[in-house]
Amino acid sequence: MGYRFDSDVLHEVARQVVGWPLETGELVTCAVELLAEAYPDSIAPTAGRWVGSKAGGILGKVRFLYFSPREYLVIFGSPTGTQGFSGRYKRVQIHKFLMAGQIDSYDLESDDLTATTLRPGEHTCLEKGQARGLTIHPGSWHLEYGRGAVATTLPFAMVDTLLVSLEFESVRRSGVEFARLIRRQVAGSRPRSR
Length: 194
Hints:
Elements: H1 7-17, H2 26-38, E1 51-55, E2 58-67, E3 71-78, E4 82-85, E5 92-100, E6 103-107, E7 116-118, E8 123-126, E9 132-136, E10 140-148, H3 154-164, H4 168-189
Antiparallel strand pairs: 1-2, 2-3, 3-10, 4-9, 5-8, 5-10, 6-7, 6-9
Helix pairs in contact: 1-2
Keywords: Endoplasmic reticulum, Membrane, Receptor, Transmembrane, Transmembrane helix
Organism: Mycolicibacterium rutilum (Mycobacterium rutilum)
Subcellular location: Endoplasmic reticulum membrane
């Protein structure tokens, strides 16, 4: 069984919105509209609300666009910048498509002592089993696409927010957004009456 999203299409969407204004929200609005055009059965043209997220020390805002057992798609970023740990996912591959700002990262286990820099319009992939240190510069926003056993990412995505930050409201809002996306998916998979 194939995947719903094509990383080349997601990369092209990120490239198309580079340079759009952040202050007015046009960058995010345009990205969501382009994704809804490319995937009308999966992405709503008006995205849900922003939710606070802290995972691996990385604090930012996330907007959930799609969630299923095998794939997820979100917009993530921070107006002020943040840094921390990418997480290590043995069963999920994670793509980042930078729309604005800059992300510096380094492999935690390699002999390489330098960081790589991701700039707007560029794409990087965290392969299964890899882990990175990340610095997300102020004003950085990216599409994040996960592919694989997505449920295995949820403990990492929620534990820091729930147990370290004690930010129960963000966990509640995340649950509401997940439920909204799953309802949309179930409604879209029902046979249409004639």
